[in-house]
Amino acid sequence: MWWRFLKRFCSEVQMKRIICKYILSFAVMIALFVGAMTLVYMIPDRLIEWHREYSLTVLAIEEEWESLGNIFGFHGEPGMLDNTTDRVMMELTVPGEAGESALETAMLMHGYTRYWHGYQTILRPLLVLYELHQIRTLNVYVFFALLAAVLFLIGKRLGAPAAIAYGLGMGCAGLITIPSSMQFMACFVVMMVVSLIVLLRYPFKKPENLPLLFMITGMVINFLDFLTAPLITLGGPLVLYLCLQMAHGASPRELVRTWFFCSLMWGVGYALCWVSKWGVALLVGSGDIFAQVEANALRWTTDNAWFESRLDVLLLNFNDFFKFQGLRTAVFPLGCGAFLAACCAFFHKKPSATLLCGTACLAAIALYPYVWYYVMIYHSFEHDWFTYRAQLPTFLCLYWGLCAWIDWKRAGEFARLCRAKLRRGGGEPCDRA
Question: What totals of helices (H) and strands (E) does the chain contain, helices first?
Fold first, then answer.
């Protein structure tokens, strides 16, 4: 059934040409990843030595699980920095053994061969000029500049309520701690960069370029990330594109195409990029790579005595999404959701095929994080204090889905009518009809 659906879709833009384009793009990206990693490990170690040692000293002085609670008023595990992983990232800037080539060092990464460690293409060059404190400052500039650009364009394309909902979702994901931890940055930067591309390029002139963008996104986040919250790089931009399509009256068929093919190609890019790394490592000389992969796959996906059921782990991550805010500040995102729900109840649009189909697609995307948690069960339990961030697309699906159903014109007219009656001192209730 899906193959016939795929064939009908691709027949419009020549299936063979698209497949060749995708395969070529994949091969070019893998070559770029290997080349970039090799080039950065050709930088002489002496050029980064002082900044590297100073940064490691800073990480050793700070608490292993550094919390920003004393500075910003956030407490508990969801507000923690992952200084342990940051220290590993810093140590792996010089991981090689004597006599290894730059290619061997980049691909073997003794002890962590299973990952690409693509963050080193940014970290090693930065260490030539900056130490950890300065890198964190640069992260703050980059993160909030991207966030401001995304919020501005969302407000312009989807309206102020959608931009406010995006900001609240980022708040629940811990936007203060994200730029302060090198490990957390990659997922959010990639998500916001792809979101900007979607906002600036919508609608794509060539239909095949949108799934291609998501395939490349899956590859890039696999290259850069440590299994932090990769799903936000799929869910964030995809929910945004679907909402743009719904706002412009796309057909149900177009919405299903977008949801299915973008999700599929992101998954293909993410999975095959990882397999490609194992293949390259095997060719370079890591004979035990598949034993490493098997051992870690069994560890992260197997039940453990620390939790009673997989549902407990799902609930743990769900609670963490709001725990970071504290009970008092969680009122803002929850209050915004209640306000949108009330507006939807009183000023909802008439049901249409586009709205119903778009809502179904958003509901499917909202479940992605919980499927991830269920499969990666022990990883999601042991690292719940950062894996909870994968629920950002779920938050956006709920809030933007409500926004899509609200007739803002009727709501605005009702608000103007109420203001006018208040100015006249009238005591009659406003008629929302």
Answer: 22, 0
Structure tokens at 86: 């940051």
Distant-in-sequence, close-in-space partners of 430: CB < 8 Å, separation ≥ 6: 414, 417, 418, 421
Contacts of 429 (CB under 8 A, 6+ apart): none
Residues of the chain with pLDDT under 50: 69-73
**Total number of residues shown for the chain:** 433
pLDDT of residue 72: 45
Domain housing 163: 12-407
Residues 120, 124, 129: CA angle, nearest 5 degrees: 150
DSSP single-letter state for residue 24 = H
Q: How many independent structural domains does the chain possess?
A: 1
Residue 3 lies in a domain: no
414 occurs within a structural domain? no
User: Is residue 72 one of the residues assigned to a domain?
Assistant: yes
Which among 278, 328, 294 is positioned nearest to 115, based on CA atoms?
278
- Amino acid letter at 417? L
Residue 7 forms part of a structural domain? no
